[in-house]
Specification:
Length: 283
């Protein structure tokens, strides 16, 4: 409120776990805790039919930051029209629910009736070169077509375990084992992809480093070296108007303190005093 009185155009964003007000305002909020609190872990465990497990990616942190940036940009656009700034209250828990594409379904009775593009039932399969491929689709439905395209014997489909969708649903482990054996007969991803029909979707399972070595990554400038031999992901937006994202150089801690503060009118004595008080630090 004090800052707003001095500058009514101020856009101020507060990012916390559970918001500025309310009964959870002082609760701890690390991404792994938020994932458990807001239904992410429960949903993954229930849909896969096993106990809930922690997420690899820190969705709560990343999505909250993205949505906070979006909120600030929206406030700046609104300020351009009204001339007035605002205080933005972004909560990590709420952001994690907002980006959950199944949250709206979970809120409708009967809870837990999920359908549609059931990606949690998709599997990965080994190839002859030791790499893996993901075949997009639920094997309970796709198994007969995959067996046909992958060169499997017709006898596989007459096996009582695989003859009907109901039987396949009861023998998913056995069904995946059969597909494992079929995909291993292909020496690499290109060989497997060549036998699939155009509407059958597959992708090679890559590491981030593998992806960075592809021609696509080089053309897209997927990474930027911030120091010799130290690549990091580049911003995903390409524009001819401005440079966006990481700079190809990193300042050491406090390297620009003096030049930045001097631009704001601080004298050398003022800056020295800040160092002496421990306000500033350099290496």
């Amino acid at each position: 409120d004090t800052l707003r009185a001095a500058n009514p155009r101020l856009v101020y964003c507060s990012v916390t776990g559970w918001g500025q007000e309310g009964p959870w305002r002082d609760r701890r909020a690390y991404a792994p805790l938020v994932h458990a609190d807001v239904g992410v872990l429960e949903l993954g465990g229930r849909l896969r039919g096993r106990r809930p497990e922690p997420e690899v990616h820190q969705h709560g942190d990343v999505y909250t930051a993205v949505l906070a940036a979006n909120a600030v940009l929206a406030a700046l656009v609104q300020r351009a029209t009204t001339g007035v700034g605002q205080h933005l209250d972004v909560a990590m828990g709420q952001a994690a629910v907002y980006v959950n594409e199944w949250a709206a379904v979970a809120l409708q009775p009967p809870a837990g009736e999920y359908g549609g593009f059931d990606t949690w039932n998709h599997h990965t399969y080994p190839l002859g070169d030791g790499s893996y491929v993901t075949l997009v689709g639920n094997p309970v439905r796709m198994f007969p077509r995959w067996v046909e395209r992958l060169g499997g014997s017709a006898d596989i489909l007459t096996d009582p375990r695989f003859a009907t969708p109901e039987a396949r649903a009861a023998h998913v482990v056995d069904m995946v084992a059969v597909l494992d054996e079929l995909t291993r007969t292909f020496p690499d991803f290109a060989a497997l992809e060549a036998v699939l029909e155009p509407w059958m979707f597959a992708a090679q399972v890559r590491s981030v480093s593998d992806l960075a070595a592809t021609e696509w990554a080089r053309q897209r400038e997927l990474t930027v070296e911030v120091a010799p031999g130290l690549p990091v992901p580049a911003a995903p937006w390409q524009t001819d108007a401005a440079a966006i994202g990481a700079s190809p150089s990193i300042a050491a801690l406090g390297e620009d303190n003096r030049s930045v503060l001097a631009a704001f009118g601080f004298g050398e004595d003022d800056i020295d005093a800040l160092y002496e008080k421990g306000v500033l630090r350099s290496v």
